[in-house]
Amino acid sequence: MVTLAEVAHHAGVSASTVSYVLSGKRSISASTKDRVERSIRELGYHPNAGARALASSRSNIIALMVPLRTDMYVPVMMEIAIAVATTARTHGYDVLLLTGEEGPEAVRRIEGSALADAMILMDVELHDERLPLIRETDRPAVLIGLPADPTGLTCVDLDFVATGAQCVEHLFGLGHREIAVIGEAPAVYERHTGFAERTLDGLRTRAGELGVRVLHRPCEGTYDALAATLARIFDERPGTTGFVVQNESAVEPLLSLLRRQGRAIPEDVSVIAICPDQVATQASVRLTSVAIPAQEMGRQAVERVVAKLRGQDVDEVALLVPELTVRASSGPGPAKG
Amino acid sequence: MVTLAEVAHHAGVSASTVSYVLSGKRSISASTKDRVERSIRELGYHPNAGARALASSRSNIIALMVPLRTDMYVPVMMEIAIAVATTARTHGYDVLLLTGEEGPEAVRRIEGSALADAMILMDVELHDERLPLIRETDRPAVLIGLPADPTGLTCVDLDFVATGAQCVEHLFGLGHREIAVIGEAPAVYERHTGFAERTLDGLRTRAGELGVRVLHRPCEGTYDALAATLARIFDERPGTTGFVVQNESAVEPLLSLLRRQGRAIPEDVSVIAICPDQVATQASVRLTSVAIPAQEMGRQAVERVVAKLRGQDVDEVALLVPELTVRASSGPGPAKG
DNA sequence: AAGGCCAGTCGAAGCGCTTCGACGCATCTA
DNA sequence: TAGATGCGTCGAAGCGCTTCGACTGGCCTT
Question: Any idea where the HTH lacI-type domain is (chains A, B) (predicted)?
Answer without folding.
Answer: 2-56
